[in-house]
Structures are given as structure tokens and as C-alpha cells.
Amino acid sequence: MQTTTVDVPTSDGVADAYLVRPDGDGPFPTVLVFMDAFGLRPRLAEMAERIASRGYLVLVPNLFYRAGRAPLIDLSGLADPEQRGAIFGQLMPFIRALTPEVIRRDAGAYLDFLAARDDVAPGRVAITGYCMGGMNALRAIEAYPDRIAALASFHAGRVVTDAPDSPHLGVGSVTGELYFAHADRDQSMTAEQIATLEKALAAAGVTYRSEVYPGAHHGFTMADTAMYDEQATERHWAALFDLLDRTFRR
Prior knowledge:
alpha/beta, Rossmann fold
């Protein structure tokens, strides 16, 4: 496979992104990956390559591109729980800048970039997201149900809030299948919030699965952080590939 960094034009500038292309001529079914708060780095490239090894073309955009190309800050302390918290604090202004409207515009640009490629199969793509990327990926499939066929969200926080534009309130527009993996030790997505999300999905008639991973912490898939959980991560891979393979009937 081939892993490169590409520039994706948007209405607000240019987003740097990882593009991982399988071997062969294509065209390939496509997966859009929304990063966690720590952004583009070797762990995200490694995860994209594992997805691409199954025959999918993968795009991982830098959602913080307005602030600069990745990495924006020093990430060398991610494996230290105390440093991880401090790093997260530095990134909060970038996280808050990702409003629903910003995500909608940017997701459209990423989809346009993929649709223009000769090696991308026609039809809808799939999307997966991690931590804040899971929440923003939900916003993307809500905004583009005709262009995104499925979502897999892992240890996402703030999917359910008291805000009038809380992500869970927009699920009625979704026509594809959704999968949610929640960490049961995640204060950003409590058992009560999970129940609220599931109630909204059921009321909207959305096809979905929502699962709690026992013992897992927020960020459990990220092997370069202190939150990594190998067993939960392997379960995540099985769930993700099950969804992708069924979506694209492979």
C-alpha cells in the first residue's frame, strides 16, 4: 500500500491529510477517518494502514487545519497520564472551534476530494471517528446521508448534551447504519447519555448497534496514550471491519 500526505482544498483553506491507497488499480471503496483530539501522528497513520490493508482507500484529514499543519504541538508526552491531560488542554481551543457548521462544510470538502479521484469507487463512503472524531463523524453523516453509508464511532464524548444542536438530536436524517462503541469508564459519555442516544436512534428508526466495552477508558484505541486497552482495541477492529465489509458487501 502507499501512504502519503495530501492537501485537501476547503472553503476556509487547505487541510493536510493522510491518504492510504491499497495496492492495485482500484477503484476502491472508501473510508473517511475523523481523528481524535491529538490529531495526525504515526498512530493514526498506522490505523489507516490497517483499514487500507483490507482493500479500502482511506483519508484522514487534519480537522485542525485552520490552526496549521499537523502536528500543532509537541505530542511526545501522550503516554504519561499527567502530560496527556496538559496536552489536551492545549488543544481545547482547536476543539471548540469545530462548530457544527464548520464540520458540515469541511466534511463536504473531504467528500468532494474523494469523489474527484479516479481510484475511488462510485457511491457512498463510510466514516469512522475516534473520541471527538466520533461525535463529529456523527454530525457528518447527519449532514450528508446521501453520501455517507455507514458510521462507526469509538469512545466518542459529548454525543449527548443539553445544547439545542446536540449531535444526538440530528439522527433522524440518517439513512445508513450506525455503530457506537462506548467506554464504560468515560465521563464524557455516561450510561444516562448512552441511554438517551439509544432512545433517539430507536425513535428515529435508525439501524444501529450501541455497545459498552467493559473496563475501557476514553481513548482506548490509541496505543500511543495512557488510555490504551489492547483487548478493547481488538474488539473495535472486529466491529469496524464487520460494519465496513457489510456496507460494501465484501
